[in-house]
Design a protein that fits this description.
The protein is mainly beta and about 650 residues long. Helix content is about 10%, strand content about 45%. It has seven helices and 28 strands. It has helices at about 15-25, 30-35, 85-100, 105-115, 165-175, 180-185, 200-210, and strands at about 5-10, 65, 140-150, 215-225, 230-235, 240-245, 250-260, 265-275, 285-290, 300-310, 310-320, 330-340, 350-370, 375-390, 405-420, 430-450, 450-465, 470-485, 485-500, 505, 510-520, 540, 550-565, 570-585, 595-605, 615-620, 630, 635-640. It has a 21-stranded antiparallel sheet that branches. Strands 3-5-4 form a three-stranded mixed sheet, sandwiched between helices. A hairpin with a 2-residue loop joins strand 10 and strand 11.
Length: about 650
C-alpha cells in the first residue's frame, strides 16, 4: 500500500529563525571567493519557491507535509516495519482526508491524483526496470518546485510526515546542521517553467542520493492542470560529523575527524593524525577541504595538505564528471607537489625524492539515443609526472619514479540505466545499480627521460540480468605499451561478478555474491608483479616473498541481513570462501603458489551516519605459503561499496594490480 498525503501543519518557527540566523552569521570568505559561475548547467534558481502563474492556488510548502510509502524500489521499513498503531492512524487520517476532499471538485481531483497503491516489499530481482516511471508526465510544464528536508534521525524517506526520534536521536538532530535548502536547489537540473523530462528527473533523483551529506532522496510529480505539474523533492540528511580510528598495535595507527556538511553548506572538512614508530616525523598531520558543486556548475574542488611519516604533499583538484545523461562537458585539473623518501631494496640508505604531478583532462559527451541513454564520449588527457630528484633506477623499473609526460585520447560508447533497489551493499537505503555497457578505446604517447613509446588499450564492460537467477557484471580489458616494435607493461584482465536475487527467510534477507578475476601481465617492469591482496578477499594475509605474472582468484560470500536494529545500527552476518592462484608467465594453474581463505564475520552499519561500515572478520588460511603473516581475527572500518558504473571518465592506463 502506497499513500501520499498532504497534511496541513503549523510552520516550524524555530527552524525558520535558525535558518535566518545561520544565513546571516555564517560566512565563509573562501566560499564566496571560489563560488564563481562557469560551465553552467540547467539548474534551479535559489528562491525558496519557484512558481508559474496558474489559476489553481499554490499550497504553502511550510504548511504541508508530503507522505508516501511502499515504493517498489526501496522500503526503509523493511528491516523494522512500523507498528500497527501507525498504520491504523494513517488509515483513519486517509478516510478523514477523503471525506474533506470530496466537498469540492478541485480537492477531489487532487486526492485522486496523489493517492495510489504499489507493492510494499523490496523487489527480489534486480532486473533493469527499476527507474520510476515519469513518462506519463513528460511534456508537462513545471509550475512549482517544493522541497522538504528531513532530519537524519527519527525520520523515514517513505513516511516523511512521521517524526518519532528517541531522546538520543533528538539530541543528535539538535547537534546537526540540516542541509540548507539552497544547497538542494543548486543540485537540481531543472527549474520552474521547464517541461518535464522523465530521463532528467530520474537522473536528478540519483544525483541527490549520491551527495555525501544526503542519505536518500525522492522526487514526486503531482499534476495540477492538464499541462502543468508541481514537483516535490524530499531529502533525508545523514549525520555528517564523524571520527575514525585504526590501530595495528601500539606502534602504528591513525585517528581522523571529519565533517561532510559544514553548517549545512555542503562543504567537507577533515584532518588526520597517523603515527608509525618505524618512520621519521611521526606522528603526521593531514588536512583537507572539499567544496561540492561550485556555483551550480557541478564542479568540485578539493584542497589538501599532509606532512609527516617521511613525506610532505599538498595540492588541489578541480573536477566535473558527466553528472547526468544530458551533461555535455566533463573535465579536471589536478596539481600535487610531493617530497618523500623512497626506501628501495637496492639502496643502503633512502634518498630524497621530489616531484610534481600535473593532470589535465577534458571530455565531450554526445547523447545518441535518449530512450536507451546511449552516448558517445570523446576525451583527451595530459599527465606530467615531473620528478625533480630520484634514486638511481633502471629504465625498465619504477615507472612512478621516472620523469615522463603522457598524452592520451579515448573514445567510449556508453549505454546505461539504473535499477533502484536495496540490501545489496547498504542496509536499507536506496541503491542505484547500473544496467548497460561501455566500450572504451584508449591510445597514448609517452615521453620519458629514458625513451619514447606508444600506448594502446581496450575495455569492454556490460551487465546482464537473468530472471530467477540474479545480476551479472562482466569486464574484459587488454592494454600494452609499444617501444620500437616490442611490447612493454602489457596486461590482460577478465572479470565477472554475480549478485543473487534477494531471498526471504522470515524477517531475514539473504543475498549471495560471487567474484572471479583472472589477471595476466606480460613484459612487465622488474618491480611489478601480482600478489594476493584484500581487494580480492584476502584480508588478514600478507606475504611479500611471493608474486607472479598470472593470478586467478575466485570469491564466494553469502550475507544474511538481520532485522535487528540497535540505535539505528543494523547487522549483516556473512560467510566467505576465497581461492587464489599465483603463477608465472610460462606456468600452468597449480604450478605456483595457491591460497585458500574461509571464515565468517559480521558487518555493522548505520545508513544515517557517514562512518565506514564496522567489520569483524574471523578467517583461516589452511594452506598459507611459507613466511606468511596471518591475522585470523581482523577488525576494520570498511568503506561503503558502490556498484561499478558505466560513466566514461578521463582517458586512463589500464591499472595493473
Amino acid at each position: 500500500m502506497m499513500c501520499w498525503l498532504i497534511i496541513p501543519v503549523e510552520p516550524d518557527v524555530r527552524k525558520l529563525k535558525r535558518s535566518r540566523v545561520i544565513s546571516l552569521l555564517i560566512v565563509f570568505p573562501a566560499f564566496f571567493l571560489l563560488e564563481f559561475t562557469v560551465l553552467s548547467q540547467e539548474t534551479a534558481k535559489e528562491d525558496s519557491v519557484l512558481t508559474i502563474p496558474c489559476k489553481i492556488p499554490v499550497p504553502e510548502i511550510d504548511r504541508i507535509i508530503l507522505s508516501y510509502s511502499g515504493l517498489n524500489s526501496s522500503n526503509q521499513n523493511e528491516l523494522k516495519p512500523p507498528d500497527n498503531g501507525e498504520t491504523a492512524r494513517t488509515l483513519v487520517l486517509l478516510d478523514s482526508l477523503k471525506a474533506k476532499a470530496s466537498k469540492t471538485l478541485i480537492t477531489k481531483k487532487l486526492y485522486d491524483l496523489i493517492i495510489s497503491t504499489a507493492p510494499s516489499s523490496p523487489a527480489k530481482e534486480i532486473e533493469g526496470s527499476g527507474d520510476t516511471d515519469f513518462t506519463a508526465f513528460s511534456g508537462k510544464i513545471i509550475r512549482n518546485i517544493n522541497i522538504k528536508r528531513l532530519n537524519a534521525f527519527g525520520t523515514n524517506i517513505n513516511l516523511p510526515d512521521l517524526y518519532e526520534p528517541s531522546k538520543l536521536e533528538e539530541f543528535l538532530n539538535k547537534t546537526h546542521f540540516s542541509t540548507n535548502e539552497f544547497i538542494i536547489r543548486k543540485n537540481i537540473l531543472f527549474s520552474a517553467g521547464d517541461t518535464i523530462s522523465a530521463l532528467q528527473i530520474n537522473d536528478n533523483e540519483r544525483i541527490l542520493r549520491q551527495l555525501p551529506y544526503i542519505q536518500d532522496a525522492r522526487i514526486i510529480i503531482v499534476p495540477v492542470a492538464e499541462e502543468m505539474a508541481d514537483v516535490y523533492i524530499v531529502t533525508r540528511d545523514v549525520y555528517s560529523l564523524a571520527a575514525e580510528a585504526s590501530f595495528s598495535g601500539i606502534k602504528k595507527g591513525s585517528l581522523s575527524v571529519f565533517e561532510k556538511n559544514i553548517f549545512g553548506m555542503g562543504h567537507e572538512f577533515g584532518f588526520e593524525v597517523p603515527h608509525d614508530s618505524g618512520l621519521p616525523n611521526s606522528p603526521g598531520f593531514g588536512v583537507k577541504y572539499l567544496i561540492n558543486n561550485i556555483s551550480k556548475t557541478f564542479i568540485n574542488m578539493n584542497l589538501f595538505y599532509f606532512e609527516g611519516l617521511g613525506k610532505r604533499t599538498y595540492g588541489f583538484d578541480l573536477s566535473r564528471s558527466l553528472v547526468s545523461s544530458a551533461t555535455k562537458y566533463a573535465g579536471g585539473i589536478s596539481v600535487r607537489q610531493m617530497f618523500t623518501t623512497e626506501d628501495l631494496d637496492t639502496l643502503s640508505e633512502p634518498e630524497p625524492l621530489k616531484y610534481n604531478i600535473q593532470d589535465y583532462w577534458l571530455a565531450r559527451s554526445f547523447l545518441l539515443n535518449k530512450e536507451s541513454v546511449t552516448r558517445l564520449v570523446v576525451g583527451a588527457r595530459y599527465y606530467n609526472n615531473n620528478v625533480f630528484d630520484h634514486p638511481f633506477i633502471m629504465p625498465d623499473s619504477y615507472l612512478e619514479l621516472q620523469r615522463y609526460k603522457m598524452f592520451m585520447g579515448s573514445v567510449s560508447i556508453s549505454k546505461r540505466k539504473y535499477y533502484k533497489t536495496n540490501l545489496v551493499y547498504a542496509y536499507g537505503r536506496t541503491e542505484d545499480i547500473p544496467f548497460g555497457s561501455n566500450l572504451n578505446l584508449t591510445s597514448g604517447y609517452e615521453i620519458s627521460e629514458y625513451k619514447k613509446r606508444y600506448y594502446s588499450g581496450i575495455n569492454l564492460s556490460f551487465t546482464q540480468s537473468v530472471k530467477n537467477l540474479g545480476y551479472f557484471y562482466n569486464k574484459a580489458g587488454f592494454a600494452t605499451y609499444f617501444n620500437e616494435g616490442k611490447t612493454e607493461q602489457g596486461f590482460l584482465l577478465l572479470r565477472t561478478s554475480y549478485i543473487s536475487n534477494l531471498l526471504y527467510l522470515g524477517r531475514y534477507r539473504l543475498r549471495s555474491f560471487v567474484n572471479a578475476d583472472y589477471s595476466r601481465g606480460f613484459d612487465r617492469y622488474s618491480n611489478e608483479y601480482l600478489v594476493f591482496n584484500r581487494e580480492h578477499g584476502f584480508s588478514g594475509f600478507s606475504n611479500d616473498s611471493i608474486g607472479g605474472n598470472q593470478r586467478l582468484s575466485i570469491g564466494f560470500e553469502t550475507v544474511l541481513f538481520s532485522p535487528v536494529v540497535f540505535y539505528g545500527f543494523k547487522f549483516a552476518f556473512f560467510g566467505f570462501a576465497d581461492f587464489g592462484f599465483l603463477f608465472g608467465t610460462n606456468e600452468f594453474l597449480g604450478e605456483g603458489d595457491n591460497l585458500t581463505g574461509i571464515g565468517v564475520g559480521v558487518r555493522i552499519g548505520n545508513d544515517n551516519l557517514v562512518f565506514k561500515t564496522f567489520q569483524i572478520r574471523l578467517g583461516f588460511f589452511p594452506n598459507a605459503p611459507e613466511y606468511s603473516r596471518i591475522n585470523n581475527f581482523h577488525i576494520s572500518g570498511e568503506a561503503r561499496l558502490k556498484a561499478i558504473n558505466f560513466e566514461p571518465g578521463p582517458p586512463a592506463v589500464l591499472s595493473f594490480e
